[in-house]
Design goal:
heterodimer, A: mainly alpha, Recoverin, domain 1, 10 helices, 55% helix, 0% strand, B: mainly alpha
């Protein structure tokens, strides 16, 4: 701790604390996590806001993500370029949303984006199939997957348009007893 | 100061720009109008109330920014701007406000610092996080629970330590000075033996750690009660908090599959093995769900399963009964042993606790085996398992405590006997300490009951006491002490119970450690290193690695805590010991989990908001409190030891005694009155009534809740039905209408069909929307959620009304056929909008007409909405932005005009259909040109000119175009991330929902056509953006964040339009709106939904925004002033809000 750190200006740290759910210490820790992914790429000072992006391959290999079936989607959703390459800002953003302090509907919103594979802002059947396959590591038969997808849409689709909108999704997910990430 | 300067600069630049525009464009009102606008701004920015509101608004942004789903860059930027604004304007406010603000700032800093500091002291945070990342939230929940218990125990320790142990240590008599603190001589020799220490005898027994040595009866009693009270309060508080968090559990809606799919993954898992087993578990659960779904109707072979279940339950009951019997037997045996034998072996001393611990260890596994018989659903199995284990633990504790109390009974008897025998056999009672006098009185009451048993044990005891009391009596006066102490040590039952509980706790700890080492660690080692040279695969077949059974472990913690509560009164050291135990357990368990455990197959997901464990703990607390209370109420405190040895009949008598002795008389009388039946009974009655009342309220609330839910459900389904009906039913009329393009009355009938479905959609959206947003801005949502629904039905039929207004506007527009020019001028031309009908300028009227045309639909409904829900911003915004794409419709009107002139206005919609068709393409085409064009103004002209050319574009081309934009559309959105999220979501929804509707519906052509148009636009603009964003991406971003303000600004502009002559009026209105925009994102979004009866508008808006931006870019390249113009616009808007 102390004021010795030269990575961020105090204003930067303050702003980050305002924008995330983290404490100062956690932000610094996250910065080091970020830097450890590619020490040669990431400078030790962010005071002059260097434009550094870490490729998805590095982000996806983090222990937090590497076993997650949706890691690619997560990285894509949180990265500003949509390809999973992350700046430090994106990185902090991701961890902030995934942290336990983040409110449920924020999480729900991002969860929706994660499950919306084709970015059309609806979870349609193809998205669902992808989700289920990723989740089960392709262990279900196509018929089973199809059945599950139909069931899901049947359950959660409030407006009968055959796909889940954000509202449908949030309506459903907020009621989940153990929706907590 | 700097910022104000820049603001001024922007203003001037803007003025300049508008002047230049004026020179280029016909119509001189622009100038004056912009000046008016300017004046407005100034007036606004000087109004302290406005400033204050804006500052509040900005502060709210700052406070909530972390909850917005924006990318970090946008958040940072918005934050910076908000802070700047706050900083800039705060100085203008009155001094006190400035100080207030400074104070608030300081306080905020301090809070943050304190928070940063406090976090350091949360113990084991990193450790738990690490476990969480490896094994998921379930396992971590165990450790979090452990930590929470640790906290509770620390408080309990502090309580007992501060009020009982410390005073005793500091102010009490030194060790050895009093009877109760002196080790008897016979025992002194063995006081330091390991054996004695082990059984908590010797020094420990006579130390402060146990009941026997307190000197502060009141403190002791109150602390003992406070321990329970605190535990209850903290538990209930936590439970209430949790239940508030998990409001979801109340809903009976069934989302089995959804939850299994979307909520299945534990995002905290970071360990391949855990991931593996989690995936397997998910597959299982999904398969199960499928099976359940398929076999819902089928009846299984019930007979066998029922038989098995009955057998299993019998087995469980037997084992429960067996364990209870064993414990009772063991306690009884130890009692007998103690009586008969003088020297007890180590085993004999500890067998009670060892047996109890063994049972608690073995029985759960046995239950698990039994549960396999039952073939329940895994979740049910787990529940059963937990319930059984809990019953077992409780049974153990209870049988133990009952056996102990039984022993206490017999101890009392022997004591009584000893005393009575002493008094019988030895005539003089002089050697007895004065203290024993009340005891004698007391004995008289108990003796009759005792007499029966006396015969059995009498002889032995008698001879025993006789042996040394008589000689003692004869010799000197010191020996009575000895005798007294003898009886004391044997008969201080409180100490005895405390000792037993502590012993149990210690042995439980030892067993836990042993089981962790044996079952987890050595098994892990064995499996890891011997699996290579074993004949079967150790890792996946028989022994495997130990699993971390969350539920059982949590139950064990609950049991442990129950033990503490049970014994805490008799042994003040128990909480302190438990603290140590929990620390050790924390380290050991976390180590074991990380080194040699694999996650449980059936992952029992316990989110932090789960009250299950807490409910068990509460149950345990209550049940553990009972024996203590019972013992306190039933038994007389030991006379020869402990704080209550001064002759209280019951332990709680100390309270009344103190009140009598140490409080003033009046207090005593008051207490007397209060404790008399006259007060107590009514008070009790009152309490009962209160409980009944609250419960009935709760019941009725529940009822209304379910009623409301049902209502929502039915309305929703009705809405759905209506949509479908509309889609089916309106098809034919619509076609007819399209054919009879001039039919005036038809249109007004048919028109609802146009507006209606979309609006239903929006209201549906509204229903849901507040729920989602409720947390983001929890203030407003609740009230809002109900009102829009009510309006919904009304508004749906409102659509004919707007038609009327539309008629007017059309008739206005008719005389001007050549209204082509400057509609698209720039975003910075609110001036166009002032509809002063008196001024016969062509341009203005044209715009007026166009704007009104848009407004009738939106505004018609919006004005309705405004009454109930004051969210005009977006609706107004729509008009204005619509003005932008207005040429499209204008032309449509123009085209139709010849017909309309004859037919009259009402037929508008009908005609709109065919006409707009042309213009879509037309617009599109013009935009294409626009792209090519370098300067801005020429564009507009060209657009108008080109209009006629493309009019006759074939329809299929359009249709084709419809599809292509989809692709350009989505990247476009991803590109647009800086935009306000809510708005965007709505836009997306809006833009997509109609598509599905249009599938259902006859899909009015103009509708599709328009969409095409707008989407193409966006695509185009997107392309433009791509092209330009490389060099001026930064500036681009600069003007975006102010979109919220832009909206309000635009809205204001619209007000100008409505109150063209009174410039004061818009201001006042503006204030109102300003306060509204404080919740800006949501209010905007919701009103968006409401008013977006016509989807096309939003689309247009959308494209317009893009268009604006791209335009800004284009112009920026061209000349600096132009950039400043747009920049100035956005910035100024911010100022204007103030």
């Amino acid at each position: 701790m102390g004021n010795k750190q030269t990575i961020f200006t105090p204003e930067q740290l303050d702003a980050y604390q305002d924008c995330t759910f983290f404490t100062r210490k956690e932000i610094l820790r996250l910065f080091y996590r970020y830097r450890d992914l590619a020490p040669q790429l990431v400078p030790l000072s962010y005071i002059d806001k260097p434009d550094v992006k870490l490729p998805y391959e590095l982000i996806g290999s983090m222990p937090e993500l590497k076993d997650n079936p949706f890691r690619q989607r997560i990285a894509e959703v949180f990265s500003e370029d949509g390809d999973g390459n992350m700046t430090l800002d994106d990185f902090l953003d991701m961890f902030s949303v995934l942290s336990e302090m983040a409110p449920r509907d924020l999480k729900a919103y991002y969860a929706f984006k994660i499950y919306d594979f084709n970015n059309d802002d609806y979870i349609c059947k193809s998205d669902l199939e992808k989700t289920v396959n990723k989740l089960t590591r392709n262990e279900l038969t196509p018929e089973e997957v199809c059945l599950v997808c139909d069931k899901v849409i049947d359950e959660a689709d409030q407006d009968n348009d055959g796909k889940l909108s954000v509202e449908d999704f949030q309506h459903m997910i907020i009621r989940a007893p153990d929706f907590l990430r | 100061v700097k910022t104000t300067k820049s603001c001024k600069r922007h203003k001037s630049v803007r003025q300049h720009a508008s002047i230049t525009q004026c020179t280029l464009q016909p119509g001189t009102e622009i100038l004056s109008n912009s000046d008016d606008d300017h004046r407005d701004l100034k007036a606004d920015s000087n109004d302290p109330e406005q400033i204050f509101q804006n500052i509040q608004f900005q502060k709210e942004i700052v406070a909530n920014i972390r909850c917005r789903p924006w990318p970090m860059r946008q958040k940072l930027r918005t934050l910076r701007q908000a802070k700047e604004i706050v900083l800039k304007y705060e100085g203008r406010l009155t001094r006190t406000r400035g100080y207030q603000a400074a104070g608030a700032e300081l306080w905020k800093k301090f809070v943050r610092l304190a928070y940063n500091f406090m976090v350091i002291f949360i113990p084991w945070e990193m450790r738990i996080k690490k476990i969480e990342s490896h094994f998921g939230s379930g396992v971590a929940s165990y450790f979090i629970f452990l930590r929470w218990l640790f906290g509770i125990n620390i408080v309990l320790t502090v309580m007992t330590g501060a009020f009982v142990v410390l005073p005793e240590l500091l102010a009490g008599a030194p060790f050895g000075s009093t009877i109760s603190k002196t080790i008897p001589k016979e025992q002194f020799a063995s006081a330091q033996d390991l054996d004695t220490i082990w059984s908590l005898g010797g020094y420990l027994q006579y130390s402060v750690l146990f009941y026997g040595n307190g000197r502060l009866p009141l403190a002791y009693f109150l602390v003992g009660m406070a321990v329970f009270a605190y535990s209850f309060i903290i538990l209930l508080k936590k439970m209430a908090k949790n239940s508030r968090m998990s409001l979801a559990s109340a809903s009976d809606e069934n989302y089995t599959f959804c939850w299994r799919v979307f909520c299945a993954w534990d995002y905290l898992i970071g360990n391949p093995e855990a991931a593996e087993s989690k995936a397997a578990a998910i597959v299982n659960s999904i398969r199960e769900a499928i099976l359940e779904e398929q076999e819902k109707k089928k009846s299984k072979n019930l007979a066998v399963t029922i038989c098995l279940r009955i057998i299993a339950n019998i087995l469980v009951l037997l084992s429960l009964a067996g364990s209870i019997y064993i414990i009772y037997f063991v306690v009884d045996r130890s009692q007998k042993l103690e009586r008969t034998k003088k020297e007890l072996t180590l085993w004999e001393k500890n067998e009670v606790s060892v047996v109890v611990s063994l049972i608690t260890m073995i029985a759960p596994s046995a239950f698990e085996l039994v549960a396999a018989l039952e073939m329940y659903h895994p979740r049910t199995t787990l529940r059963f398992q937990l319930a059984r284990v809990l019953v077992l633990y409780l049974g153990n504790l209870y049988s133990l405590i009952i056996a102990l109390l039984d022993k206490v009974d017999s101890m009392n008897i022997t004591e009584a006997e000893a005393n009575s025998s002493a008094s019988n056999w030895i005539d003089s009672t002089t050697f007895l300490v004065p203290r024993t006098v009340p005891k004698e009185d007391n004995l008289s009451t108990t003796v009759p009951a005792i007499r029966i048993r006396r015969n059995s044990t009498m002889t032995l005891e008698k001879s025993h006491t006789q042996n040394y009391t008589i000689p003692v009596m004869l010799v000197n006066k010191t020996t009575p002490y000895l005798h007294n102490m003898q009886s004391q040590t044997a008969q201080c039952w409180e100490t005895y119970v405390g000792q037993e509980m502590l012993k149990l706790s210690i042995i439980d700890m030892i067993f836990t450690v042993a089981s962790i080492l044996l079952i987890d660690f050595f098994r892990g080692l064995f499996v890891r290193y011997l699996s290579d040279c074993w004949c079967w695969d150790l890792e996946s077949k028989f022994p495997e690695y130990g699993e971390f059974k969350i539920a059982e472990n949590v139950l064990h913690l609950v049991y442990n805590q129950g033990m503490i509560w049970m014994g805490a009164f008799f042994s003040p050291c128990l909480p302190a010991f438990n603290v140590l135990k929990l620390i050790g357990l924390m380290y050991l368990r976390s180590w074991a989990v990380l080194t040699c455990n694999v996650p449980h197959q059936q992952v029992f997901r316990a989110s932090r908001s789960n009250n299950f464990y807490l409910a068990m703990l509460l149950f345990m607390l209550f049940l553990c409190m009972l024996p203590t209370i019972f013992a306190i109420a039933r038994y007389k405190p030991s006379l020869s030891c402990g704080p209550f040895s001064s002759g209280q009949e019951k332990i709680y008598d100390i309270v009344s005694e103190t009140i009598k002795a140490d409080f003033p008389v009046w207090f005593n009388t008051v207490i007397n009155y209060i404790s008399s039946p006259v007060v107590v009974l009514p008070a009790l009655l009152l309490l009962f009534m209160l409980i009944y009342y609250l419960q009935s309220i709760a019941r009725s609330l529940k009822f209304t809740n379910s009623q409301l839910r049902m209502q929502i459900q039915t309305e929703r389904t009705e809405d759905k039905k209506k949509v479908v009906q509309m889609a089916v039913g309106k098809r034919i009329p619509w076609e007819c209408h399209a054919l009879t393009a001039g039919g005036s009355s038809d249109s007004s009938i048919n028109n609802p069909s146009l507006l209606f479905p979309a609006r239903i959609q929006t209201f549906e959206g509204n229903d849901k929307r507040p729920e989602q947003d409720s947390d983001l801005t929890s203030q407003e949502s609740s009230a809002r959620s109900s009102t829009p629904r009510k309006n919904g039905s009304v508004l749906n039929f409102e659509s004919p009304v707007p038609k009327g207004s539309r008629i007017q506007t059309i008739s206005q527009s008719i005389p001007q056929p050549d209204v082509a020019r400057p509609a698209n001028i720039s975003p910075a031309t609110p001036t166009h909008l002032t509809p002063t009908p008196s001024v016969p300028s062509m341009q203005k009227r044209r715009i007026d007409q166009a704007a009104n045309r848009y407004s009738n639909i939106v505004h018609g409904s919006a004005s309705e909405l405004c009454k109930t829900k004051p969210y005009p911003p977006v609706t107004f915004k729509k008009h204005v932005e619509d003005v932008h794409s207005e040429p499209l419709f204008r032309k449509g009107i123009r085209q139709v005009n010849p017909d309309v002139l004859g037919a009259g206005a009402p037929a508008f919609v009908g005609r709109k259909v065919p006409t707009t068709r042309y213009f879509i393409v037309n617009e599109h085409e013009s935009r294409k040109k626009l792209l090519r064009s370098t300067s801005r103004l020429p564009k507009h002209f060209r657009m108008e000119e080109s209009g006629d050319i493309v009019e006759l574009y074939p329809r299929n081309v359009r249709r084709y175009v419809v599809r292509t934009p989809h692709r350009t559309y989505s990247p476009h959105f991803s590109e647009e991330e800086e935009e306000e999220e809510e708005l965007r979501r709505d836009l997306i929804n809006r833009s997509y929902r109609p598509r599905s509707l249009s599938d259902l519906r006859p899909a009015p052509r103009f509708y599709i056509g328009e969409r095409v148009d707008s989407q193409i636009l966006t695509g185009k603009d997107l392309a433009k953006m791509h092209y330009k964003s490389w060099d001026n991406g930064f500036e681009l971003e600069l003007d975006r964040p102010s979109q919220a303000h832009k909206k309000s600004h635009v809205k204001r502009v619209d007000l100008d339009q409505h109150y063209p002559e009174h410039h004061v009026k818009p201001k006042s209105k503006h204030k109102l709106e300003q306060s509204l925009t404080e919740s800006d994102s949501i209010s905007i979004s919701s009103s968006d939904q409401q008013t977006s009866g016509n989807d096309q508008y939003i689309q247009v808006i959308h494209s317009k925004e893009k268009y604006l931006k791209s335009e800004a870019k284009l112009t920026r390249n061209k000349s600096k002033t132009h950039t400043d113009l747009t920049m100035a616009e956005s910035n100024e808007l911010v100022c204007s809000n103030v």
